[in-house]
């Protein structure tokens, strides 16, 4: 991600060394060294440190950064929440509170959110289950949405990663959004049907496809399209969908701007499929059905885990009452 950021800056004819400063934390020492080596191989420098990010903040990151990029591990369990209590509350690393479930997704989301300055933006990969998670995670998601921090959410199809076949979601936060005309809206994009098939088990986004999706977001933000990436393919697609003088509009099956009231009616869900809909004539394929089933199964696993925790709590409370 750091190298791609530098390439983006270079493609816009600026010097990455002058434009970006890189900071990061990683649990595994070998991965830290690989990251440092990769940066050096591309002529970049970065302050990458070894730490378990849940517990340690070696960069004193709260409210510090302009941008956050991350691809965290999904559905991490066994995080020692007792070690996090001192960092809960306004102006701290976990400003929205701790989830009751044994799942780290909303810990990661808050770490990215709290690291941003007042105009900072974050982009990260997240498990689909986080978009619809219930109970305490739903409460945390509601707070994040009500803070006007969620700018855009993109649904990504399966097989886009070499190590994970499941579909996922891209979340984009923007702390400066609350002072704009977009304050009470969120952009949803369903990009599951946008990809190039590499082989039977792997897909990717071409530069033109990345440019198209990025320009949908730019149009939503009221910005001019940028065709630096993607060449003629990108230059043709945007006018084809949004007109010769491109201007954002909702497109069934592709994108939808939802208000906070609409999101509240959907149980504070950030699942693009709930809003974007299906384009006329589009048929749900076996693969899409499998993806939907996998998403539902992720939620079922989470709910079962919550049920087990609740069952243990009830049993413990009943036992304490009977003993007194």
- % residues in beta strands: 15-25%
Structural category: alpha/beta
- The strand count comes to 10
The CATH topology comes to Rossmann fold
Q: Could you spell the SSE succession in H and E letters? A: HHEHEEHEHHEEEEEHHEHHH
Q: Please, what is the average pLDDT?
A: 90
**CATH-defined superfamily:** Vaccinia Virus protein VP39
Radius of gyration: 21 Å
How many structurally independent domains? 1
Tally of alpha and pi helices: 11
Q: What is the CATH level 1 assignment?
A: Alpha Beta
Helix content, binned percent: 25-40%
Q: Which strand order does the major sheet show?
A: 3-4-6-5-7-10
Largest sheet: 6 strands, mixed
Q: Which CATH architecture? A: 3-Layer(aba) Sandwich
Q: Which overall shape is indicated by the principal axes computed on the Cα atoms? A: globular
Low-confidence regions: none
Q: For the terminal residues, how far apart are their CA atoms?
A: 57 Å
């Amino acid at each position: 991600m750091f190298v791609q950021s530098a390439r983006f800056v270079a493609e816009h004819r600026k010097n990455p060394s002058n434009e970006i400063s890189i900071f990061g934390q990683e649990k595994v020492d070998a991965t830290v060294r690989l990251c440092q080596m990769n940066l050096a191989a591309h002529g970049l420098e970065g302050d990458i440190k070894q730490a378990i990010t849940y517990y340690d903040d070696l960069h004193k990151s709260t409210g510090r950064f302009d941008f956050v990029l991350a691809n965290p591990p999904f559905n991490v369990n066994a995080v020692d929440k007792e070690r996090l209590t001192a960092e809960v509350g306004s102006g701290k690393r976990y400003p929205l509170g701790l989830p009751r479930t044994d799942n780290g997704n909303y810990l990661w989301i808050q770490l990215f959110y709290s690291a941003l300055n007042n105009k900072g933006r974050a982009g990260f990969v997240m498990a689909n289950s986080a978009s619809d998670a219930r109970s305490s995670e739903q409460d945390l998601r509601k707070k994040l949405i009500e803070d006007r921090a969620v700018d855009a959410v993109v649904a990504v199809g399966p097989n886009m990663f070499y190590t994970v076949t499941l579909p996922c979601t891209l979340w984009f936060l923007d702390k400066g959004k609350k002072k704009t005309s977009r304050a009470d809206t969120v952009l949803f994009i369903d990009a599951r049907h946008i990809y190039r098939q590499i082989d039977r088990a792997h897909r990717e986004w071409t530069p033109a496809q990345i440019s198209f999706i990025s320009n949908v977001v730019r149009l939503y933000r009221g910005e001019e399209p940028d065709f630096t990436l993607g060449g003629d393919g990108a230059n043709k697609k945007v006018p084809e969908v949004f007109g010769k003088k491109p201007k954002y509009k909702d497109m069934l099956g592709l994108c939808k701007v939802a208000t906070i009231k609409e999101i509240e009616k959907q149980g504070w869900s950030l699942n693009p499929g709930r809003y974007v809909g299906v384009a006329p004539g589009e048929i749900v394929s076996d693969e899409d059905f499998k993806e939907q089933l996998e998403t539902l199964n992720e939620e079922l696993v989470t709910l079962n885990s919550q049920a087990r925790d609740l069952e243990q709590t009830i049993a413990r409370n009943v036992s304490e009452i009977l003993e007194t």
